[in-house]
Design goal:
Elements: H1 3-10, H2 15-26, H3 29-39, H4 50-61, H5 68-74, H6 83-91, H7 95-115, E1 128-136, E2 158-164, E3 169-176, H8 187-191, E4 198-202, H9 209-217, E5 221-225, E6 233-234, E7 239-243, E8 247-258, E9 261-272, E10 282-287, H10 296-314
Parallel strand pairs: 1-4, 4-5
Antiparallel strand pairs: 1-2, 2-3, 5-10, 6-8, 7-8, 8-9, 9-10
Helix pairs in contact: 1-2, 3-4, 3-7
InterPro entries: RNaseH-like_sf (IPR012337), Transposase_11 (IPR002559)
Pfam families: DDE_Tnp_1
Protein name: Transposase IS4-like domain-containing protein
Length: 317
Amino acid sequence: MLSTVFEQFVEESPLSVMARILMERIFMPERLDKIFEAHATVQYQQDLLFSSQVDLMSLVVCGIHKSVHAAYRAKAIEKIVSTTALYNKLSGIELNVSQALLRETASDLMYLIQAMGGEQADLLPGYKLKFVDGTCLAATDHRLDAIRAYAASSLPGKAIAILDQPSKLVTDVLLVEDGHAQERASFNQILSLVKPKEVWCGDRNFCTAKFLYTIILKGAFFVIRQHGSLGFKELSELKYSGETETGKVFEQKIEISYEGEILQLRRILVKLNVPTRDKEWEIAIFTNLPSSDASAVEVAEIYRNSWIQRNTFSNCN
């Protein structure tokens, strides 16, 4: 499994041999096939095993081969199944199978990182940070009959990824077949993953009263950029709190309402030295973190770090 990928590293460093052993154990074909059997509801395994499909796709994802067809020829899978059968299998992989593959292998990889002492220091001691973001798969010019009358390219799908800050692993992913759907359509699934003492960081697409309220109900916290459509009541004036590399930081107390409940929050405002790519000079952030654990400047830095992590999410394409 993944032998061609690791072969490039083995020749350069003996440490790669150890990495190969550990990684191949996590991605054992038998283990991957069991994941498929446990989560597939429509597809079944016959001549072409799920583990073989993962092995094949790894060669493309890791840049060993430029296309599925090139990897297919190199692995001589044609002796087992036809090209048509291969593509039919790949296109028919169910979303819950792909999600389970990431989730279960990420769990093992996190254990490995922890055992080797490879985790980064917590950005906020005492709390576990999670970064959530959605990314659309690249638009395609291939046209289905139903959309050939439209000029815009179609979006094949969307992935909402959850990244664990200390390990820098994407620990879960929600896959959506409708690339034009909003993240909000998947909020219930995202919220089901929230655990106490976690801090969920996200962009303004995740800033709804329901999302924030549910996180609080679960005993967790958030650092989420304010969305203009979510109204709030000011309880105090903005007060200068300090500076970061990106600008001056201010804070005020606010409240929002949801289904008769009143949520008292902190609103952190960063007046930027340089505008964003959307020409915005201010970024406002909502948080329920206690000021005794996270100052306004620290909250601003946590959100800035979430932007840095978006580079990881972009790799989901």
